[in-house]
C-alpha cells in the first residue's frame, strides 16, 4: 500500500510540474488562435566575459603623440606659453645631450636613473620627456628638500646623471661634484627653445623604444614618515593606468 501511494504521489508531482511548465511557456499559435502550441524553453549557455581591446596593451608616453597637436597650447607658466611642438623639440635636444654625456646611443640608456630638479613649470615636462626619450628612468627631486635629503635620494636611486633647471643649478652642481656625477644645466624656462639647436636625431631614431609597457618610467620616493624615504618604481603602463 505504501509503495502504491509513493508511486501515485511521484506521478502526480511530475504531471503537476509539466502542466505548470507548459502553462508558463505556451502561446497562441501564429496561424490559428484556437490552437495552442508548447514552446520548450531554450537552455541558455553560461555567459563568457570577453576582454575588449585595450589601448593600454602597449602604452606610449605622451611625448610620442605631442607632434600631433603641433602648435596647440600645452602649458602656460610664469615664463609664458609653450606649445606641444616647442616642448617636444626642447625635450629632443636635451635627450640628445643626455645620451652624449652618458656615451649612449639615443634611447639606449636601458632604464638608467636621471634625477632632475625643476620648478613647477615647463622645464619639468622637458626634463621628464627627455629622460624617457633617452631611455632613462626619471627621478624627480623636490625643490624644498634640504641638500641632505636630495643627496640621499640621488645616491639611493643610483642616479647616473643630474639635470638642474634654472635657478637650481647653484644648489645641485656642488652636490653633483661631491657624488662624482655629471650635471646638465637647463636654460631659463623662457629660453628652453635654445635646446633645439643641438643636433637631434631623426624621427625614426627618437622612437627606437617600441615596447613601453614594462619599461621603467619613474621612481617616486615616499614621504618617509616611518623611516627613510623609499623609492617606488612605476612603469609606463602603471602611469597610464593612473
What report would you give on this structure?
The protein has 242 residues and is an alpha/beta fold. The protein contains 6 helices and 10 strands; from the N terminus they run αββββαβαβαβαβββα. It has helices spanning 2-25, 84-101, 122-133, 147-156, 169-179, 236-241; strands spanning 26-28, 36-38, 73-77, 80-83, 113-117, 137-141, 159-164, 183-185, 216-221, 231-235. The strands form 4 sheets. The protein has a 4-stranded parallel β-sheet, with helices on both faces. Strands 1-2 form a two-stranded antiparallel sheet. α3 (122-133) links the parallel β5 and β6 (137-141). α2 (84-101) crosses α3. The longest helix is centred in the first third of the chain and has 24 residues, at 2-25. The chain is globular and about 45 Å long. The chain starts with a helix and ends with a helix. Keywords: Lipid metabolism. This is AMP-dependent synthetase/ligase domain-containing protein. It holds the Pfam family AMP-binding. Residues 65-241 form the AMP-dependent synthetase/ligase domain. It comes from Goodea atripinnis.
In short:
This protein has six helices and ten strands; from the N terminus they run H-E-E-E-E-H-E-H-E-H-E-H-E-E-E-H. It has a four-stranded parallel sheet, sandwiched between helices. Strands 1-2 form a two-stranded antiparallel sheet. It is 33% helix and 19% strand.
Kindly list the characteristics that best describe this protein.
242 residues; alpha/beta; four-stranded parallel sheet; two-stranded antiparallel sheet; 6 helices; 10 strands; 19% strand; globular; disordered N terminus; AMP-dependent synthetase/ligase domain-containing protein
Amino acid at each position: 500500500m505504501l509503495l502504491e501511494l509513493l508511486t501515485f504521489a511521484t506521478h502526480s508531482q511530475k504531471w503537476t510540474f509539466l502542466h505548470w511548465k507548459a502553462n508558463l511557456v505556451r502561446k497562441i499559435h501564429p496561424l490559428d488562435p484556437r490552437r495552442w502550441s508548447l514552446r520548450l524553453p531554450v537552455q541558455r549557455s553560461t555567459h563568457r566575459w570577453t576582454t575588449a581591446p585595450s589601448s593600454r596593451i602597449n602604452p606610449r608616453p605622451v611625448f610620442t603623440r605631442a607632434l600631433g597637436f603641433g602648435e596647440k597650447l600645452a602649458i602656460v607658466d610664469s615664463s609664458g606659453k609653450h606649445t606641444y611642438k616647442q616642448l617636444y623639440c626642447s625635450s629632443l635636444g636635451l635627450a640628445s645631450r643626455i645620451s652624449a654625456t652618458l656615451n649612449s646611443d639615443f634611447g639606449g640608456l636601458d632604464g638608467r636613473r636621471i634625477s632632475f630638479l625643476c620648478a613647477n613649470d615647463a622645464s619639468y615636462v622637458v626634463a621628464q620627456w627627455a629622460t624617457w626619450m633617452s631611455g632613462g628612468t626619471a627621478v624627480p627631486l623636490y625643490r624644498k628638500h634640504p641638500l641632505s635629503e636630495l643627496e640621499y635620494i640621488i645616491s639611493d636611486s643610483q642616479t647616473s646623471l643630474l639635470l638642474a633647471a634654472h635657478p637650481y643649478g647653484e644648489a645641485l652642481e656642488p652636490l653633483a661634484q661631491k657624488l662624482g656625477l655629471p650635471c646638465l644645466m637647463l636654460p631659463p624656462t623662457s629660453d628652453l627653445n635654445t635646446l633645439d639647436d643641438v643636433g637631434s636625431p631623426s624621427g625614426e631614431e627618437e622612437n627606437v623604444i617600441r615596447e613601453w609597457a614594462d619599461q621603467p618610467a619613474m621612481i617616486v620616493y615616499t614621504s618617509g614618515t616611518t623611516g627613510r624615504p623609499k623609492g617606488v618604481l612605476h612603469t609606463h603602463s602603471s602611469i597610464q593606468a593612473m
